[in-house]
Amino acid sequence: MTMKKTFLFFTLLLLASVIGPSSCSYHNDDNPNEYPDPQPEPEPEPEPQPDVNEKYLEASYTPNCFMVKPGESVDIPVLKAYAIWDLYAEWLDKSDFTGMTPEPVLLWQDTPGLITNVGLIPGQTAEEGSIFVSTADKVGNALIGLRIGGEIRWSWHIWVTRYDPNAELVAFGKIYTWDNNGDGVADYTFMDRNLGAVIDKALIENTPADSLAACGLLYQWGRKDPFPGDRILRGTNQTDYNRFDSKPIYDAAGTLLTEGSQSGGTGIRTIRTSEDLTRTNFAKSIFSPMHFLLADNWFPSEEPLKVEACDTLWCGARGKTPFDPCPEGWCVPADKNGLFAWNGLDKATTDYSPLGVFPYAGFRYRVGGGCLKNSGFNTGIWTQDTYQLSIYIIPYDQRPSIKRDRGYRSDGYSVRCAKDE
User: Fold this and answer.
1) How many CB atoms are located within 10 Å of the residue 61 CB?
2) What is the rounded CA–CA span in Å between residue 110 and residue 132?
3) Contacts for 122 with CB less than 8 Å, ≥ 6 apart
4) Is 99 exposed, middle or buried (0-12, 13-18, 19+ CB in 10 A)?
5) Cα separation of 252 and 46, whole Å?
6) How many CA atoms lie within 13 A of 227 on its CB side?
7) φ/ψ of residue 87, rounded to 5
8) Bridge partners (DSSP) listed for residue 134
């Protein structure tokens, strides 16, 4: 089974003042927009069947990301945590939470003071309770965890933004429709920015500041929890295995969390999946949402808790899955009409894309200790499915060269959410 997943890959000189000359790793002079025929999709692995009750099944599909306007608050139902641990017990463990009090905790925020209050709403039972999260008048991102029995059992991304793609008149931004088979009917509605973007204006311009603010967060394929990207746009594709200078994140007290390997760091840490075989890697991804898991494919586990690869973490029978990172009503885009989501996209530059700005966020590398790579030089956009599209913007003539390509599930790339419809 392939250990790679779909992503949309762009390479571009962002601005002459930011990036120096470079070359592309792929160049198709004859037909830069030729797409190969899609290969047959693999048979989906069976999803867990609800042996307990329908309530758990429905709760498992509640969102992992909540969009909140600055200065406002949100209530997060905690039932999902209990549902996941019941429905996916085979990959986790048979934990009994009876009599245990859930404890919400702010794991990180990318702006000091962004989250002003986190707590359980009083007077509710454990499973039926909700976490109350209030925000300051700032934009940014935060990760809220739910601790039961001393360990994190689930976590949610809080995206604090004035951007409202659900409004009748979209606030602080745009949405874009896309027809991927040329029949004149829109097949997708996309957000105009990456998931977790902190740009606080309606028009995203082709400037270094706007591009950096629009980069958003990075995701390993199939995982719901985000990781911060590069602090600056470096404009090179050279690999520096010691580069961990990500956008800063802070704890509840506003203390800077440092990034490091297994031997150090108080914030994002990198862990090899071959270490600690007492838990499945799926369990590690939930227990430790701040751990970037190193491997070609982070999900499979070896003996004694052997788990095979899974192709349905972001693509299930219902479309949006329990592990999808997008907010309510939105999801990681899937192929449609037997074609790739972005089929027909022939202009992918910052200035001329029919789908808005694609900032060059680079990615987190699955090797090299999870180092940051290629910011300001290229970007990858994940999709649900098992095939990929790569787009390289040729520096010397700004012409896109487009083809399907492959990406490793453990690399951390961007997400551009589409309407779940």
Assistant:
1) 15
2) 19
3) none
4) exposed
5) 40
6) 36
7) -70, -30
8) 73, 117
Find, among 135, 304, 134, 287, the residue nearest to 223 by Cα. Answer: 287
What's the DSSP call for residue 419?
Answer: E
Q: Sheet holding 412-413: strands in order across?
A: 219-220, 412-413, 363-364, 372-373
pLDDT at 235: 76
66 φ/ψ angles, rounded to the nearest 5 degrees: -125, 125
Strands (DSSP E) contained in 179-220 are 188-191, 219-220
Per-residue model confidence (pLDDT) at position 354? 82
Residues 199 and 241: their CA atoms lie apart, in Å, by 29
Where in the chain are the domains? 1-48+166-421
Distance (Å, whole) CA 371 – CA 364: 6
From the first residue on, what is the mean pLDDT of each consecutive set of 10 residues in the chain (421 residues)? 47 32 28 42 51 85 98 98 93 87 97 98 92 98 97 98 96 94 95 96 86 94 96 82 86 90 72 86 95 91 81 86 98 91 70 75 88 84 71 51 72 94 87
CA separation (Å) from 24 to 12, 211, 236, 344, 398?
Answer: 9, 21, 11, 21, 11
pTM to 2 decimal places: 0.86
pLDDT at 213: 94
Give me 265's structure tokens.
């760091």
b/e map 350-384, b = 16+ CB within 10 Å? beebebbbbbbbbbbbbbbbbbbbbbbbbbbbbbb
**Residue whose C-alpha is closest to residue 139's, from 117, 111, 118, 116:** 111
CB atoms within 10 A of CB 229: 26
Strand order in the sheet with 188-191: 175-178, 188-191, 418-419, 330-331
Cα separation of 121 and 129, whole Å?
Answer: 7
Question: Which tokens hold the place of 310?
Answer: 């899974």
Closest CA to 156 of 133, 136, 137, 122: 133
How many CB atoms sit inside 10 A of residue 312's CB?
16
- Name the amino acid, one letter, at 73: S
